[in-house]
Amino acid sequence: MLSLSALHQKQGKSQLMKMGLMSAVTVVVSIFALGQGSSSNLDMWTTTQTILRDIRAFVGLPDTLRACGYFDGVAWNAGQTCTNAEDLQSQIIWRLRLPRVLMAILGGVALATAGALMQGCLGNPLVSPLTLGVASGTSLGAALAIIVGFSLTTVGSLAIAGNAFVFSLIVVFIIIQLGRYRSVSAESYILVGIAITFIAGAIVSTLTYFATDAQLSQLAHWSFGSLARPNMVVVALVATSTFTLFPTAMKWSWDLNALSMGGDDFAVSTGVDPSSIRRNILILSALLTSLIIAFTGMIGFVGLAAPHMSRILIGNDYRKLLPASAICGAFLMLVADTIGRTLFAPVVIPVGIMLAVIGGPVFMYLLLQSKGVR
Amino acid sequence: MSTLLSVENLSFSWPNREVLQNLNIEIKSNELVSILGVNGAGKTTLLKCVNRILKPSAGRVSLLAQDLSTMQTIDVAQRIAYVPQSVSTNFPMEVYDVVLLGRRPYISWFVRDEDREIVSESLEFLDLEDFAFRRYDRLSGGERQRVVLAKALAQKPNLYLLDEPTSDLDLKNQVVIMKKMRELVKDTDRNSSALIAIHDIDIAARFSDKILLMHDGGIMAYGTPEEVLTPENIAEVFGVEVEILNKSGSLRIMIHGALEKETR
Fold first, then answer.
1. Which B residues, 80 through 139, put their C-beta within 8 Å of a C-beta on chain A?
2. pLDDT (tens digit, 9 = 90+) per residue, A299-343?
């Protein structure tokens, strides 16, 4: 018989294997997603070939790369005209679908991580990234930009998203101020978040009361949550921030384990300062959330479902739960968005709606099943 | 034997109520000390002040001649392990991982072989090998308490603080927990002591080296069970008339009122 330690190590390896498998599936799905769309559906082999051919061309032409940067919005092969079908296909894949697929992955990673972090540090399985009121901050910012025309950013294309982001930072600021009180409990954070949601909701309702039909429909479209808006610049920005914040979250996984396993007193005796770690984690997850939601609109479900699905698959150890949630979130978003834009093509159903429609029943099934095993 | 914990002039008060008044306690190495007293006498508050979960309003707590208030949380956790009455959670982990949390004060991020060894030892010491990969929430009350104790053990502390560890348990598990605690404390390699808040006077008398009898936030008596558990002290603190029987060194508490009623 193996010793306990050896068994534990073996279990750790099998959990890593599961995560590896999940990420592999996500990569395969993302290649598939690049080939799917309203113009033409490519099979996976053709998509892979197209991508590989383009990457070869891209890497092989460093001068062209320097001359016309991809991130300027100018395609790297802009000198050529899209005369043949292959070029058109590349253009669609690289300029339209790639930002979208990447944004789906990033959004899933960030929102699922934020959800897992917040559930753990508040010790509450009902918490999602929208609970703290960050989302209502973004929708207030968006409503102000759309209806009043008031925006803190001058760049036209960023008027709504920028404003949404700035207003969500106000909510983050309130959380920081709240965290200064040493005695603030997990419940107080949740209650203040709900209060913020009500206040911001009331202001948005007042604004919509005076809005024109056109403004109303723009606001409604914004709030559905869509991945169509972000371009490569936004994706690069979001990717940089997400992947700098994620390792910080990983660093705190021991503290999160102590806090979510036994509450404050248990955490103290394990060497964790619960109030400061809770504040830091909430700020981090609020930042992750607002970063995504400001650019995509309301996407909430993935932040609730992905962590719980990962808990069922991997368990509640945050060292593994955080990466697993991130992968699971990316997978969910990608699948939901791909189905949403292919199901009734050329009509695109916003990812926020698709997530709830597809993810909801799957989530319920998994939860009920895992309870049944018990 | 050297002094392990010394509490000097410790006071604690909530904004409207004074809970602890001017406590002075000294605990030596390899001693098991039980705290007795009615609900609200300040037993839990004392434990939390020692573990810095609560901040005393006055006084000093020092462990091995080091002032605790000047230490980092993580350094305190390497020296003191606190076991609450019960630990419940919405996000239960597996037993092995719960006990691994006891190594948190020593781990930077990655688990070392040494940590795994200590966790396995702790699990074996508390006879939890068969439960190592079961989920915490699927265990019974006695098993859970042993898991939390194993976690405390993995911290390799000098001082164990247990807050009514036996109140939710049946007789067998009460005795198991106290026996294991005594075994731990008497292991001279470990140089550790235990301070245990407890309600059962018989069990306290049977397993403790010393008993701290608390009354209204102060110390009524502190000494060996024979010294502290007198009918006068118990009548004063609990308001119950008892007789103390000493049966070959083991104390028994006989409650007068109840006894008379039953024997007619």
1. 80-84, 87, 89-94, 96-98, 101-102, 104-105, 107, 109, 113, 116-117, 119-120, 123-124, 129, 132-133, 136, 138
2. 888 999 999 999 988 999 999 999 999 999 999 999 999 888 888
CB nearest to B73's CB, from A262, A268, A315: A268
Q: What's the predicted TM-score (pTM) here?
A: 0.87
A:262-291 residues touching chain B, CB 8 A cutoff: 262-266, 268-273
CATH architecture for segment(s) B3-262: 3-Layer(aba) Sandwich (3.40)
Task: Search chain A and give the residue with CA nearest B123.
Answer: A4
User: For chain B, what percent of residues have pLDDT higher than 90?
Assistant: 55
CATH of A105-299, one of 3.40.50.1820, 1.10.3470.10, 3.90.76.10, 1.10.1240.10: 1.10.3470.10
**Chain B CB contacts of A120 below 8 Å:** 91
Beta-carbon separation of A316 and B92 below 8 A: yes
Nearest to B104 among A8, A258, A263 (CB): A258
- Chain B residues in contact with A123 (beta carbon < 8 A): 89-91
CB of B19 within 8 A of CB of B45? Answer: yes
Interface contacts (A, B; CB < 8 Å): 114
Amino acid present at A365: Y
Q: Are B237 and B213 in contact (CB under 8 A)?
A: yes
Residue type, B182: R
The model's pLDDT over B101-129, given as tens digits with 9 standing for 90+, comes to 999 999 988 999 999 999 999 999 999 99
Q: Which residue of A has its CA nearest to B138?
A: A374
When scoring B14, B68, B90, B91 by the number of chain A Cβ atoms within 10 A, the one with the most, hence best to mutate, is B91
B193-197 β-sheet, strand order: B80-83, B159-163, B193-197, B32-36, B210-215, B218-223
Distance CA B41, CA B261 (A): 29
List the single residue in A with minimal CA-CA distance to B104: A270
Say whether B133 and A123 touch across the interface (CB within 8 A).
no
ipTM: 0.87
Alpha carbons B64 and B68: distance in angstroms, whole number: 10
Domains in chain A: boundaries: 105-299
